Amino acid sequence: MLFNFYAGIEAFPICLGTQDPDEIVAVVKHIAPTFGGINLEDIASPRCFEIETRLRAELDIPVFHDDQHGTAVVVLAGLLNAMRLLHRTLAQARIVICGAGAAGTAIAHLLLRRGVQDLVLLDIHGIAYEGRQAGMNPTLTALARQTNPRRLMGDLAEALAGADVVIGVSVGGILKPEMIRRMAPDPIVFALANPVPEIMPTVALAALISRIR
Q: What are the tens digits of pLDDT across the range 105-157?
């Protein structure tokens, strides 16, 4: 319904009773001749990266992954609007992404392509940096080489000190008021975890008001 309503595209869901990458790739390849495009949905990382890469290489129709590409496009659009309102540029901003799953890594890739220079990515193990061992996968390892130019290490509070933007695609409640207060003036806060965001809008706003006072 969403595809049809917003883009006039006829689409319908096909649910697969497997989480095995080889089986998913095989099924999608077999049904692909029926469709003009494939949109993968709710496949967790890191399996989603392998499945998407293989299907893109083996099919002659577009292959998308909603958790990655859909989220990244919407975040970039919102961030460009926020930058315009605040008379800032992406190249000048310090941006922190909390969450390094499918959505977080896709957002990071897109922001880097749009000229972001200072980007820090975090997961459950803390800030991603080149040489970190815990919790790394090929996608995160590659991003660690392209991000974190100030070579930060530590947790979310450390990453947010002086940051202009925080993009949350992680878990509810992880952003605390004191972290928001440590950010740069007029920070941009995208708390996108669902159903409970990283910080409630009223709590974030109260933290900023208290800092002004």
A: 999 999 999 999 999 999 999 999 999 999 998 889 999 999 999 999 999 99
Q: Which residue has the tokens 């009223």?
A: 202
What's CA 187's distance to the chain center, in Å? 18
- pTM value? 0.86
Q: How many CB atoms lie within 10 A of CB 173?
A: 14
Please indicate whether the domains covering 2-65 and 69-212 agree at the CATH topology level. Answer: yes
CATH 3.30.930.10 is the classification of domain 69-212: no
- Measure the CA–CA gap between 127 and 212, rounded to whole angstroms: 28
Fold entry, domain 2-65: Rossmann fold (3.40.50)
Of 154, 98, 93, the closest CA to residue 129 belongs to 154
Peptide bond just before 195 cis, omega within 30 deg: yes
Q: Which of 166, 56, 147 is nearest to 109 (CA)?
A: 147
Determine if residue 160 is left, alpha or beta; phi over 0 gives left, psi from -120 to 50 gives alpha, anything else beta.
alpha
